């Protein structure tokens, strides 16, 4: 039985759908767009849920459904219209004096993905709270997931041993010998790189070898980079502040990304239970290091993802890190709670356990404790737990700022309080950029004059959270800054 009260409370708290929950109004008839949602959720790791009978624009209030049984039959019919058919359990649920139709969608067998709409042949993917047609490259990514990944151990035919960084290789060999003397460390300088997956028997570097120990891996993989941007207080003329692209081998990209974060994040004032007040980084640097390292070693290295970079965005109220490639061998609900050793890139992970950066610290630990460390660090500073989103072919980690345990920082964050008119407008602009005043009024349930008043505050110098686009003879639309 679905805990509908808890589910709707969570949706209302965050003012929108989630990656795994799609809400449809269903006023006046069954929403045919539910077909795309069923398909996208069947392709989503862990599956998801479609709830019919709630109006997101009015704070997820229930709307009348004429005949719930007809809606339930329509869900079942649409589930069979997918290839392979989606496994869906659907039931009527009473909520605030109305009946909702709740469809729980099971994840499609990975060996049969991507799930498609039979009539059109289109496959859909879930991206945060929306459903989108898969691109051909994204479809390739799902097809690749039908077999265990072994891409990182493949040789790069056009590379030679000279494309490896001698200092990094020497440091790696020294670390292996000190930590695994009777295993990999017993081989000589010629045999060890072969046994460790750095090069093939012919001396050709592997993908993992180049990324971990190469002089400039981007010569062969131009988008194997980390792109960072500070989107706080960006405006029309300055979309992102201090945007950078970091290249080089993994240990160098990790070090440079963390240096950028130290320089650009700033600090927050936190009051502790013992009465002390301290200035701390906006997010714990130890947690950030683990998340960036995870993105670097677990990103997909297959041909379909070669055009994609790791992206780190600092927004007004959160920090996001996205890498191509979803989880392998584990589900989102276990992240940060249990330690596990499943790795998409087995060779690369093995190398990075013994690769040290310019700071002398190994890229990753061998105990698979990275995300439990993230959870512990966030807890220690009173910050919310990290949120993780696995779309199957992309993975995103989100760190939120806290307003509950840090009143000093909350007061200076510039964010309007939940439930206020300004917050309703800000959330609408965030989830649906490019709306006009009239469209914002329809979305939020406010009057046009109320929307205009809210926009004045959101665009003012005290907040600068929203910007306007348009000009003479053009419609004015509004967009979230940061």
CATH class of the largest domain: Alpha Beta
- What is the rounded Rg? 25 Å
Give me the number of helical elements. 15
Structural class: alpha+beta
Strand count, sense and closure of the main sheet? 6 strands, mixed
Unreliable residue stretches: 404-413
For the largest beta sheet, what order do the strands appear in spatially? 12-11-15-16-18-17
What would you say this structure looks like, in words?
The chain has 482 residues and is α+β, with helices and mostly antiparallel strands. It folds into three domains: 4-134, Schlafen, AAA domain (Methyltransferase, Cobalt-precorrin-4 Transmethylase, Domain 2, 2-Layer Sandwich), CATH 3.30.950.30; 136-413, 2-Layer Sandwich (Heat Shock Protein 90); 414-480, Orthogonal Bundle (Arc Repressor Mutant, subunit A). Helices cover 32% and strands 19% of the residues. It contains 15 helices and 20 strands. The strands form seven sheets. It has a six-stranded mixed beta sheet, covered by helices on one side. A four-stranded mixed beta sheet has the order 1-2-7-6. Strand 6 and strand 7 form a beta hairpin. Helix 8 runs antiparallel to helix 9 (285-298), helix 9 packs antiparallel against helix 11 (370-380) and helix 13 (421-431) packs across helix 14. The radius of gyration is 25 Å and the shape is globular.
């Amino acid at each position: 039985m679905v805990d509908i009260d808890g589910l709707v409370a969570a949706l209302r708290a965050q003012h929108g759908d989630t990656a795994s929950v799609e809400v449809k109004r269903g006023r006046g008839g069954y929403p045919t767009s539910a077909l795309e949602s069923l398909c996208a959720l069947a392709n989503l790791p862990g599956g998801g849920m479609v709830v019919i009978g709630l109006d997101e624009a009015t704070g997820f209030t229930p709307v009348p459904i004429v005949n719930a049984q007809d809606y339930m039959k329509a869900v079942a019919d649409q589930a069979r219209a997918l290839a392979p058919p989606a496994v869906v359990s659907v039931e009527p649920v009473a909520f605030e004096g109305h009946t909702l139709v709740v469809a729980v969608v099971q994840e499609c067998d990975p060996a049969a993905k991507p799930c498609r709409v039979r009539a059109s042949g289109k496959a859909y993917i879930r991206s945060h709270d929306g459903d989108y047609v898969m691109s051909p490259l994204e479809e390739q990514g799902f097809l690749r997931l039908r077999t265990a990944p072994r891409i990182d151990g493949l040789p790069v035919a056009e590379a030679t041993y000279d494309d490896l960084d001698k200092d990094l290789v020497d440091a790696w060999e020294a670390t292996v010998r000190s930590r695994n003397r009777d295993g990999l460390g017993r081989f000589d300088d010629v045999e060890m790189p072969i046994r460790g997956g750095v090069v093939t028997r012919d001396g050709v570097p592997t993908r993992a070898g180049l990324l971990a120990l190469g002089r400039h891996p981007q010569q062969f993989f131009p988008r194997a980079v980390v792109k960072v941007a500070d989107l706080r207080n960006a405006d029309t003329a300055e979309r992102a502040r201090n945007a950078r692209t970091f290249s080089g081998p993994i240990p160098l990209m990790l070090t440079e990304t963390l240096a950028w974060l130290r320089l650009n994040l700033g600090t927050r004032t936190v009051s502790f239970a013992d009465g002390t007040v301290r200035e701390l980084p906006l997010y714990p640097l130890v947690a950030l290091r683990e998340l960036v390292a995870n993105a670097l070693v677990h990103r997909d290295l297959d041909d379909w993802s070669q055009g994609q970079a790791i992206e780190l965005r600092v927004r007004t109220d959160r920090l996001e890190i996205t890498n191509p490639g979803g989880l392998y061998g584990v589900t989102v609900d276990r992240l940060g709670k249990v330690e596990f050793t499943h790795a998409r890139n087995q060779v690369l992970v093995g190398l990075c356990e013994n690769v040290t950066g310019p700071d002398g610290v190994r890229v990753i630990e061998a105990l698979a404790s990275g995300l439990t460390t993230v959870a512990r660090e966030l807890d220690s500073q009173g910050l919310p737990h990290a949120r993780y989103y696995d779309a199957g072919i992309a993975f995103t980690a989100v760190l939120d700022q806290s307003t509950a345990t840090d009143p000093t920082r909350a007061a200076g964050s510039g964010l309007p309080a939940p439930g206020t008119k300004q917050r309703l407008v800000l959330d609408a602009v965030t989830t649906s950029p490019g709306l006009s005043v009239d469209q914002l009024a329809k979305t939020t349930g406010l009057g046009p004059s109320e929307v205009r008043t809210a926009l004045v505050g959101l665009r003012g110098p005290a907040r600068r959270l929203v910007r306007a686009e348009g000009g003479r003879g053009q419609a004015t639309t509004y967009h979230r800054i940061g």
